[in-house]
């Protein structure tokens, strides 16, 4: 496996090549299903207005849109942080509307999350941050000891295991947070502007990493403002505008051409 | 099993990592529990004292000089059948004079005859019933009875004061308990607030509510325990060193006793444990809605 480096500024050409096409119709292989989802924040702010789409297993999907177009709401809905006003959401075969509150932690263990601000625990080392996600699920100590170095090695931080987040660069911190998100092999990885705080070179490294994770079979849903990246990758793009789904293109760019 | 170990190790970890808030919370518990302990000791002593004073209240039934044995027995039967009455003691004229002589020797020195009547001393079970018992004997006055006396003025005043003392004590305990609960809850809230990011992350990686709550509650429990034990030690110190100096100057009957120190300590520790654990558990609820 090729290790991504910071000098490697070119977006991997493999990314642009059409791989196996994702199944076009929603079927049993659907990872995320949105059916007429509406979300109204009281008193009358319509964040999402009747959104419907299907994302299949193994897809790499960008969600683009201006601030306030409903992207964050969409992610919060996926994690069941908030409830839709109307409509149905299915994640990994689970109908979120029927999912009991006590089962929400189980949902989140199957959905990795990467954020713009990393959300690492500041007083724990990189390894401890990653281990935390495993411990929370009651993984045995031996299994934690085996998996953590493995995944940190995967993201290219084998030599920074015992560094605190403060001692790491932004790109490295994001790698730790990606390692934490995928350490338990979730079928779905949600990234909320993972490169939003990073310089372009570092962003490319992160994208390569995400791409590799996607190739290994993980569905990736990525909210981004990075026009260049979306245009280069030519992946499926869902564009939100004022709470409506303005565009759903199989291999789209950041803006419609 | 490994979950429990995990929760315990997380709790100790964050106790150490947030030493200043840990100390602040412990000190808050210490102060609150110290005050509560003092109040409980003082309050129970005062209540016990007022009980003692109340116990001295009694109804006296004086007989006319020409009373007959039957009349006395009739009154005794009547008094003893009253369930509010705890004990009835017959004081003959001679006994009364003897007591008088002991208490006021100079007054009784020149007496040629015994001017005192026979009487009953009636001890009510509840001091508050004193007036009612007196009224019951008086109306209608049985034959042979001269008059019934229970020291109306004094009795009313004593009862009034005792009631005020009890109410003040109760209110003070409630207020202090509420105040220290709020104070401790607030400290806990601050420490949790400063770690809300941590909680957010825990929830996002799929920690169950109990998994997040566990370490916090354990921390609260430990802070409560340490604070309470320290407060108990301080109180013990105060009891051994300061109290003898003060108590020497206060007149009180032997029956007047504060709540035993051990019970007081048990109350403090239990209260602070409950406040610590429940306080942090409840405060967390707000932050768990991620």
Can you summarize this structure?
The complex is a heterodimer of chains A (257) and B (290). By secondary structure, chain A is α/β, with parallel strands linked by helices.
What does the model show?
The complex is a heterodimer of chains A (257) and B (290). Chain A has helices at 13-16, 71-78, 104-109, 126-136, 141-154, 170-182, 200-215, 227-233, and strands at residues 30-41, 45-56, 60-64, 86-91, 94-95, 111-115, 188-192, 219-223, 236-241, 244-249. Chain A has 257 residues and is an alpha/beta fold. Chain A has a six-stranded mixed β-sheet, with helices on both faces. In chain A, helix 6 (170-182) packs parallel to helix 7 (200-215). The longest helix of chain A has 16 residues, at 200-215. The radius of gyration of chain A is 18 Å and the shape is globular. Residues 1-26 of chain A have low confidence and may be disordered. Helix content of chain B is 71%, strand content 8%. By secondary structure, chain B is an alpha+beta fold. Chain B starts with a helix and ends with a helix. The mean pLDDT of chain B is 79. Chain B has a four-stranded antiparallel β-sheet. Chain B has helices at residues 2-17, 19-55, 69-80, 93-103, 105-108, 130-138, 152-193, 196-204, 209-247, 261-287, and strands at 59-63, 85-91, 119-124, 145-149. In chain B, helix 9 (209-247) runs antiparallel to helix 10 (261-287). Chains A and B meet through helix 3 and helix 4 of A and helix 1 and helix 8 of B.
